[in-house]
Amino acid sequence: MNKPKMTTEKGVPSNSRVLMLLGQLERLNREAMLADAEIGRQITAKILHLIQTQEKTRKEIMSKGSSGMEVILATLENTPDLQTILNILYILNELLTVGGGRRVGVFVSKGGTGILLQLVLSGSKESPPSEELMLQLHSLLAKVGPKDRKFGVKARLNGALNVTVNLLKQNLQNHKLLLPCLQVLRVYSSNSVNAVSLGKNGVLELMFKIIGPYSKKNTSLLKVSLDTLGALLKSKTNARRAVDRAHVPVLLYIYQDWHRNDTRHRHMLIRKGVLGCLKNITNIKLGRKAFIDADGMRILYNTSTECLPVRTLDPLINTSSLIMRKCFPKNRLPLPTIKSVFHHQLPHVPAGGPVAQLYNQPLGVDDVVDESDDNDDVETENDTENEEEDKDHHAMNDDIETDINKLRPKETHSRPFEELKIYERFFLELSEDFQRFNFDNPKSGVTATAAASKSQRLIIVPTAQALPPKYPTAAPLQEERHLAKGEQPHPEASPLAPAPTPAPVHTLDTINITKDHDGCCDHSQVRPQPGQEQELVQGMERVALEGTGPQGGAGGGGVNRHYRQPPLLAGGVAARQGGGAEETLAEEWAEEEGGEGAVLEVPDTALLLPLHDPDLYVEMVKSTRSVPQYSEVAYPDYFGHVAPTFREHILERVYGVQRTKIFQDIERLIHPNDILDKVVYDLDIQSCPVIDDGESLKFNSQFESGNLRKAIQVRKFEYDLVLNSDINSNHYHQWFYFEVSGMRVGAPYRFNIINCEKSNSQFNYGMQVLMYSVQEAISGRPRWVRTGTDICYYKNHFSRSSIAAGGQKGKSYYTMTFSMTFNHKDDVCYFAYHYPYTYSTLKMHLQKLEALRTPQIYMRQDVLCETLGGNSCPLLTITAMPESTSNDQICQFRNRPLVFLSARVHPGETNASWVMKGTLEFLMGSSPLAHSLREAYIFKIVPMLNPDGVVNGNHRCSLSGEDLNRQWQSPSPELHPTIYHTKSLLQYLAAIQRAPLVFCDYHGHSRKKNVFMYGCSLKETVWQTNISATSCELHEDLGYRTLPKILSQTAPAFSMASCSFVVERSKEATARVVVWREIGVQRSYTMESTLCGCDQGKYKGLQIGTRELEEMGAQFCVALLRLKRLTSPLELRNHAHLLDVESDLIETRCKVTSSPSTYVLEDEEHSFMEEVDYSAESGDEPDIDPDTADPHDNRLSDSESNNHRDSLT
After folding, report:
1. Running DSSP on this structure, what letter comes out for residue 946?
2. How many alpha carbons lie under 13 Å from residue 869 in its C-beta half-sphere?
3. Which helix H or strand E contains 243, and what residues bound it?
4. In 882-1017, where does DSSP find H-type helix?
5. Which residues lie across from 543 on neighbouring strands?
């Protein structure tokens, strides 16, 4: 016998018996001797025997480099002998049964699929076809099909599809052959064209002949049939066919029968298969209607409820939940229009964009829902958490800027210098010679804040509800004229009016008022000052404050305070009156007008909150202008917030909480008689927004930064809440701030905010809402605390119109739900998305900071411009005074590098203001570090870029209805005055060659943890794309990374790993990118602070609070000082007091692993044990965080990362 020409792998003996047999088989093929059937049978039988008895034989055939598979397939293709074919099929079955997908992959790559399909076709022509042959062929195809991407197409073109269907029809009782045929059909059906074809051939009806009620027999066959049916029903054509033939009630009956009888849960996969069929049918409108008509909601609700105690049945519960949510009839959001309830007429309407569409919308158009939100062509639900990831994968790099010319800073200035010269008035420090300044009495000549305008406006504090109509109305505010109105700014000094002398108050530990069951106050625990007992127990619901405010000079006129005397409640908090009590309150008001004013007792937090003064706050409110003309002040803003000393951990998600909440929602449809559906608060009813019948909670949001449009009592202790859109917009529902009163102690209240728009939220990952209790405040604990249990965020059944969804139909809103138990009877509590920080708070803080100024501090506050709403936009200049008027000192003063900071362009990102507060307090501090920082830089600060949005409770926009952080490329002086003038300041600096060393815009991030930065880098942007560029084109100083690196070493909350320096197309109009490109500031950043908490460093596992946010602002200052040391070491060595800086930095340093720039996903969260069951529709979200959303995860390769890291160290 000639030596076979078989190729063998190294290490495999060439005289192996199986290789010799394969060599003989190869020679038969080559010499066309297969006509000798007996020899082929013998050789293949021997190979089969070796494979069945010796594991090493299989390895030899399938080993890398062996041509055994080619020989076997060639023989299979060429031999006409049935027994030889069967022997080879047995061999292949043995080979492919073990060894995983690699062996199947080899088989497919060698063309095995086509050979098998050809054998199916040729075998079917025999009369009758060999049952054994068909059995083996279909068994092999069932193994091979899932690994061959073109399997369905090959089968259809080959004709094998019809062969399998005919075989199935002829062998419905032959379970041995039926099983592999069904397995192959299941693979065929994964191809949509095949599925439609199979449906036309009656395969759906065949499946319903096989599946049926509970039976212990043939469960494997039933499981495969259900899987096949489920695959077929993914086709909408087949789903309609199933509905037309009334198969939905049949499936529900089958599911119920298996649920009843499968008591030991041994056949969960069969039950899941039935649910899979129902899930696919209900992807179409007809299927959902048939499901509802067949009482499917009640059936699945009841069966799921019975499954809840068994953890292993969670897959059934989750799928049932998904089906029920999908079939839940889409409801209309309970609003007359999705436009904001408040309106502000713009000076002119933009030519295009969402605001233009809003103004051009025809009258009478229903913008809440579409005519048909249930669209057959739209997949209304996708049961995958990874949809966002899938979209990200397909859209990889789509948003990254690839035009190198756009990534280079502009070299020419877009505006003539003459036009910019008017901004010289804001930079007096660059030309100041201090000749008139008396260094013996420095206070005499320092520029100061312009005095706030005085107003006769009536202010109600604290708040509980809207003013009854008979109350006096507020007088109009006096006009202020600023740069936006065409007038030049007045930077001349004008001293501040001193703060009013506060009335006598109790310290925090002296106020403890309780109430007995008869409604009378018990004063046994009250230790008031003499003569004040009666005033202390008066109702604290509201106080009317009138007058012109504090006058100049010591002992100036104070504020007249008038009490009304409604029923007394625990803690001295009065119940809100409504409805019929209106006249009584008006009479009380009239009586008090003629009497002597009482004194409101406010917790004395002066020592803990040096920048807070309730009387001063009210004065600031008087000059704040809002579209709704708010006349009330919220307790938390009046009392102030003292950060708690205890840690607030990120909430651990309770297993099954989302499912429980969804089931409670579904119960609304199952048990409609249990639903109250009672409106208790509605801003759309301007005359009487509060409905008070004594049986419901009372809500209020009519105060500065408040946002709650409507409250509906759904059940006794459950309320649906609707947020108001941003003014001149029809969306952006995220920020909320409202008051609740009239609660019962210990009752389990549930609150649902039902018109959220984002597809995911940190509420799913441990973030809690903020609550402020007035009872706690007057008991000595005035603070916002994280609260709420059973918090989750999921898609709901309220339809979102295409007008609100950017033209896309079939979208839904999302629900943020939390549960709450109140601890104090008749308390007044406030809930907020994040720690509120109002515009009036900013004005109060700035005035208090001015009072803290020492002779060594140069501080000037200018009015940059006036906003659309008539509010002033403050501009601060802070640096150190020169030591004398010598030329050297003045020259050093004028030539200090500038740092430009801004914050709060997005009103809902209140954490940005708390970080800014930390920065301002540090800059105005008396520490050696603060003094050194002032000597090192001139700070220009715009602490609130969007005062109007903040005042009116917007989440994202200004009164123009536009995101101001998307207007930096070409801002309008009329519509975007704060951006226009801030950019003009920067353009002026660039024109005089004094561009800032650092620009940083403070923001908040709603979807990520920690604090981090976004910067701009040409190199790192190009690295994330496929564009080719020479090294000279990518020349770039890596100094942009220095500041974030310093922060990662010094600031506990800062994460370098979350930073990104990639420039995206969608962010080209943001402050960060425009200042980098147009002003030429290399260190141009957005600093993002989490709304949730940290997952690394010192604060790992903790929710972030105001203390940590303010600390971040201070640490930013320290990092700037170290940046100065790194860039100008010789200059700073002259300052002896800086020797301690390094040690201070080391003390505060936390271990943070530095990493290369990564392009991170918006939601970098660990998956839960429980599936987060909602569709991620981020692609259609119009409100992705500016400068925050990074919709890709394009990480550098290991080699690139290493090279990158090496180049930076």
Report:
1. -
2. 27
3. helix 236-244
4. 887-894, 911-923, 928-936, 947-951, 977-991
5. 563
The predicted model scores a pTM of: 0.78
Determine whether 331 is exposed, middle or buried from the number of CB atoms within 10 Å of its CB (0-12, 13-18, 19+). middle
* Residue 822 pLDDT: 97
Tokens of 916: 């800014």
Phi, psi of 1031 (to 5 degrees): -65, -30
Structure tokens given for 583:
């006249």
Phi and psi, residue 521, nearest 5°: -75, 140
Q: Identity (one letter) of the amino acid at 392?
A: D
Q: Which amino acid type is present at position 957?
A: C
Q: What is the CA radius of gyration of the chain?
A: 37
**Distance in angstroms (rounded) separating the CA atoms of residues 926 and 719:** 49
Token pair listed for 162:
């019809």
Nearest Cα residue to 180 out of 169, 164, 202? 164
- Report, as residue numbers or ranges, the catalytic residues: 1088
Three-class DSSP labels, 345-385 = CCCCCCCCCHHHHHHHCCCCCCCCCCCCCCCCCCCCCCCCC
What's the rounded Cα separation, in Å, for the pair 501 and 510? 21
The answer to whether 1205 touches 407, Cβ cutoff 8 Å, is no
Distance, CA of 60 to chain centre: 55
> Is-contact 916 939, C-beta < 8 A?
no
| C-alpha torsion angle, residues 427, 432, 438, 444 (rounded to 10) | -20
pLDDT digits (tens, 9 = 90+) for 557-607: 333 333 332 222 223 333 333 333 333 333 433 344 333 333 445 667 777
Residue tagged 């027999």 (tokens):
217
Nearest to 184 by CA among 162, 213, 208: 162
> Is 734:723 a contact under the CB 8 Å cutoff?
yes
> To which H or E segment does residue 903 belong?
strand 898-903
**Tens digit of pLDDT for each residue in 375-434?**
444 443 333 333 333 344 444 456 776 666 666 666 566 788 999 999 999 999 999 888
1065, amino acid identity: R
Give the three-class secondary structure for 421: helix
- What would the pLDDT profile of 1170-1183 be if each residue is shown by its tens digit? 444 433 333 333 44
Cβ-count burial of 308 within 10 angstroms (0-12 exposed, 13-18 middle, 19+ buried)? middle
